[in-house]
Write a structure and sequence with these properties.
two-stranded antiparallel ribbon, DUF2779 domain-containing protein, 3 domains, five-stranded mixed β-sheet, DUF2779, 7 strands
């Protein structure tokens, strides 16, 4: 096939959600564009997709293809089963996010290569009246100190005051807590039974089992702004682009425990869509007295994804950094993790507004 310049901007088969590894079957048939997938896959009445209580993977892919190829209106879609799920959640709602390092050469005695070492969590809490509080943002700041057990203690302290529903984003938090349960059993701190009981209440099968917001999005929510991704870093600018209410709230300065006076809704003048808030995070060293940009504490200009956070905390384990550099890294870590849980809050706020309307 001889491609013209405009063909490169057409939605193609590599943009289809959850089709990793399947593209070869299309290429073998000389199928390159989403438009070519529609014959044979379109339901007899495609509008019925939007009244399904929830979507299976094929239905979700169909919605994406129809919206990205112009066959359906290029607006967000929501399966009504989400509202039923929301009715089962208990206030106050807690949105948590973890950061962890998996080092090939462990920093701490008694650990194995690639053992999970959680070093940070953030928690935002939403109350029934809509009020939002950045409740906690904890990091183990002491170089060389194994953070794992204290991490669980601090998380327990944050969440044990009520029976509110706890939210995570994807499987990482569930995996980390199960790994910490094994570590606690091995190391036997005095409060081992309490910590294990706390963990077991939150992980899969527990009486307070965390709700996976990623799964909620997969089954119930789609915006064409997300394209083929359910990453929170794609969902966040999508809901900000779709929601006039979020635009109203976050065009005003937001302040939490570490992020101060940040305007997170800023439209791109060329596309009209929201600029990704992760791109608006402060550079490392911002607001830190005497920090010198020419002597970078870490290689990245800012910490805006999990891999950079892992590398930044790993850098803190070495003793060749001065206090100013350490403060700069810590401030950026706190801000990044705070945005992760604020992003979860924004998604839920948008769903609340849709439910009420």
């Amino acid at each position: 096939m001889q491609w013209r310049e405009k063909d490169f901007s057409r939605p193609h088969i590599f943009d289809v959600w959850n089709e990793q590894g399947m593209q070869k079957k299309y290429l073998d048939k000389e199928v390159y564009f989403m438009e070519e997938l529609i014959p044979g896959m379109l339901p007899a009445n495609p509008e019925l997709l939007y009244v399904q209580p929830e979507w299976d993977n094929d239905q979700r892919k169909t919605i994406q293809i129809m919206k990205q190829t112009g066959h359906h209106e290029a607006t967000e879609a929501l399966a009504p089963g989400l509202f039923h799920e929301m009715d089962s959640w208990t206030y106050p709602l807690h949105f948590i996010d973890f950061e962890a390092v998996l080092a090939a050469i462990p920093f701490h005695k008694g650990l194995y290569p690639y053992d999970y070492v959680p070093f940070q969590f953030s928690c935002h809490t939403m109350y029934e009246d809509g009020r939002v509080e950045h409740r906690a943002d904890w990091i183990e700041e002491t170089p060389g100190k194994l953070p794992s057990i204290m991490f669980v203690r601090k998380l327990k302290e944050c969440l044990e005051g009520d029976e509110g529903t706890v939210f995570r984003y994807h499987n990482f938090e569930n995996t980390v807590l199960n790994k910490m349960k094994d570590l606690i059993r091995e190391r036997e701190p005095e409060d081992a039974e309490e910590l294990i009981a706390f963990i077991e209440s939150l992980v899969k099968g527990g009486e307070r089992e965390m709700v996976d917001q990623y799964e909620m999005i997969k089954k119930y929510y789609y915006s064409p702004v997300m394209k083929n991704s359910i990453s929170i870093k794609k969902v966040l600018p999508a809901v900000l682009s779709e929601s006039p209410k979020l635009q109203e709230i976050y065009s005003q300065p937001y302040s939490g425990l570490y992020l101060k006076n940040k305007v997170f809704y800023q439209p791109n003048p060329e596309t009209g869509q929201a600029i990704n808030p992760y791109e608006l995070l402060n550079k490392v060293g911002y607001g830190i007295p005497d920090y010198d940009d020419s002597d970078k504490a870490i290689g990245e200009d800012s910490i805006s994804e999990g891999g950079a956070a892992m590398m930044a905390w790993s850098r803190l384990q070495f003793n060749d950094l001065d206090k100013t550099q350490r403060d700069a890294i810590l401030q950026s870590l706190y801000e990044y993790c705070e945005l992760d849980t604020l992003a979860m809050v924004m998604i839920h706020q948008h769903w609340n507004f849709l439910k009420k309307n």
